[in-house]
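Weekly sync, protein design subgroup
Attendees: M.S., D.O., the rotation student, P.L. (late)

Item 1: inverse folding check
M.S. brought a backbone from last month's batch and wanted to see whether the design step gives back something sensible before we order anything. D.O. pointed out we never logged the input encoding, so this time it goes straight into the notes. Structure tokens as presented (134 positions):
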């Protein structure tokens, strides 16, 4: 493997760009024909406009929808100031789904973007995940 790219389906490219830049401090990188690259995270994030009701995949039979949904894959954004990041995300339009929880490795808050995608904000403390690694 030589890298990782993150793709997020969104219903409205302009709204998604505003949200992710304001909520997480990302910046627009390259612009392509109909989609945008965001930079500033550990991996580039590509916002891909896909209309609600279109096929999610050729074989699944599922249709895209942008109400809150669950998926076993989600993004965790590591931040240095969780309260500040939580306030910025909320102000940008994120739904805060849990208050800040504290664990041995650090602190976490669960949120959803305006397109129904869940994500977390994490602030590591001490040795981060090494605090609980065996």
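Designed sequence read out in the meeting:
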């Amino acid at each position: 493997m030589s890298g990782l790219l993150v793709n997020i389906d969104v219903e409205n490219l302009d709204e998604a760009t505003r949200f992710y830049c304001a909520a997480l401090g990302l910046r627009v990188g390259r612009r392509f024909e109909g989609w945008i690259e965001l930079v500033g995270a550990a991996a580039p994030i590509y916002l891909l406009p896909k209309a609600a009701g279109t096929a999610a995949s050729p074989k699944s039979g599922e249709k895209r929808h942008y109400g809150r949904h669950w998926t076993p894959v989600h993004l965790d954004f590591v931040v240095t100031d969780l309260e500040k990041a939580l306030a910025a995300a909320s102000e940008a339009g994120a739904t805060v789904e849990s208050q800040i929880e504290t664990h041995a490795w650090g602190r976490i808050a669960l949120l959803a973007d305006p397109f129904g995608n869940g994500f977390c904000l994490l602030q590591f403390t001490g040795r981060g995940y090494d605090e609980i690694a065996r």
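Discussion: The first strand starts at residue 6 and ends at 10. The mean pLDDT is 96.
Action: P.L. to compare against the previous round before Friday.
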